[in-house]
Amino acid sequence: MSATDFFDSNVLLYLLSPEPSKADLVEMLLPDGGMISVQVLDEFASVATRKFHKTMHETRRLLNSIRAVCDVVAADIETHELGLDIAKRYKFSVYGSMLVAAAIQAKCTNFFTEDLHHGQKIGGMTIRNPFR
């Protein structure tokens, strides 16, 4: 993996999973880095504290580890507008579309997620479900 790979929070959250095979796969994807957005960090923190009952201290430690290997891209109004266009065109959720828009603007070639259509190409980027 590399800086041309974008990770959705639903993939990164398997780092907390009781499913060792999926957690191990995510750990194998991350050492070479990748890209995420602030939205991914927000979603990760929300699920880590709510569903996995991590303390804020534990959650911050996990987020720091993720940020140590992944570049964080910022969203702006252009990201927002592109995300709305993607939501309309592909019938994706608005939140998912904002992530796709951030990845496209970061010039990523792979978007790792469980939520979208594996193999679909959008804006020069391929959607990949790493667990398929």
Word description of this protein:
There is one protein chain. With 132 residues, the protein is an alpha/beta fold. It is 51% helix and 15% strand. A hairpin with a 2-residue loop joins strand 5 and strand 6. Helix 3 packs antiparallel against helix 4. The longest helix is centred in the middle third of the chain and has 14 residues. The chain starts with a strand and ends with a strand.
How many helix segments?
Answer: 6
| CATH class type | Alpha Beta
Which class do the helix and strand fractions yield? Answer: alpha/beta
Number of domains: 1
- Kindly provide the radius of gyration, computed on alpha-carbon positions and rounded to a whole number of angstroms: 14 Å
Side by side, the strands of the main sheet go: 1-4-6-5
What separation lies between the terminal Cα atoms?
Answer: 17 Å
Assess the beta-strand content as a share of residues: 15-25%
